[in-house]
């Protein structure tokens, strides 16, 4: 990206899976020798992972945009519907103006011809993005925080 002002106009996006009962992150416990299997040093599990949800979200330097739960398998048509129902509203809520730049990865459903035509018809500039580079997307940091908070809330609910 050319400069700091240009970066402020980027609306970053991605999808992620959040485990409802499984581990979203590694857990470590400090314990005394020979106490590994004491209940206070173990994390309960659910058979077969216990389920998950998929979400799409976006954010910019101004804050977070919409977050959408994805029901079922996402294909190009479902992705385009998510964009149609959430992208422009997110850009408006974040006061990005009409000349914002949209970031998405190179997943085939993102690059579908009908989706790219939709961007063109809406005059939305799509940021060129290198293949296989999720580590470059700052939304990965948001996902980490969300998954950590979600897991913390689960343990808090169990403690009540």
From TrEMBL:
Pfam families: DDE_3 (PF13358). It comes from the Eukaryota. One of its GO terms (molecular function) is nucleic acid binding. Residues 9-157 form the Tc1-like transposase DDE domain. PANTHER family: SI:DKEY-77F5.3 (PTHR23022:SF135), TRANSPOSABLE ELEMENT-RELATED (PTHR23022). This is Tc1-like transposase DDE domain-containing protein.
